[in-house]
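Subject: Predicted fold for Mitochondrial inner membrane protease ATP23, 245 residues

User T.R. writes:
Posting the sequence so we have a shared reference for the thread.
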Amino acid sequence: MGEGETDSPPAAKKGAEDDEEDDFGYRLFPDRNKKPQSFLFRSLFTFHNKCQLMLRMTLEMNPYARLLLEALKQSGCTVFNDRHFSCENCDGCVSGGFDAATSQIVLCQNNIRQQSHMNRVVTHELIHAFDHCRAHVDWFKNVKHLACSEIRAANLSGDCTLMNEIARFKFGLKRHHQTCVRDRAIRSILAVRKISKETAEKAVDEVFDACFNDLEPFGRIPHCRADAKRAYRDFQNRDRYTANL
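User M.O. replies:
I've generated the structure tokens; pasting them so everyone works from the same file.
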């Protein structure tokens, strides 16, 4: 994604005090607290229609997303399009978020305009959903837990591929991927937590090595679509090898 945009980590439960909601990022997702709109209204709303079409394309065709959907299903957390995804209007600085209170991925229909962008946002948020499914993540009180999932999402979603970094006019050779992952994890935390930059940096640095090297469910860092396809094939073959033993 371009500068000024970020994928948001989980938002807080509804019904919290206003200042608490602000701490956990609900201010970035104003439609979370509104009444659901009628199907007719949403169908006629161009952004919503386009968002739904791009989402379907991602879930059916993108190897990153398909691998994560299968991994979630195998972990006992089957994802359903209508239940677990919601296209909504968001604050101008975010592209998506994972709402741990409802286990729902929010896609910012007013900020996602291209299929490649949708692919990255869905993948990023599905990684949060996978972490939520497989581990007891304390999204709201333990910033290290949040930092770990943000590191994994930046590392494995394609956020930091060479082409994306060039598009952001960021260049570098030595450990550039690690630097990108660290920077984007810090930015995502700061987008929805009222903490200092120093606190966010400390949390990221303390868990960086362990979380950067946690490559589940991909088994590798997918630096491009071809890598993701290979990872998806390997993931599908895991159970076949075990069954033959």
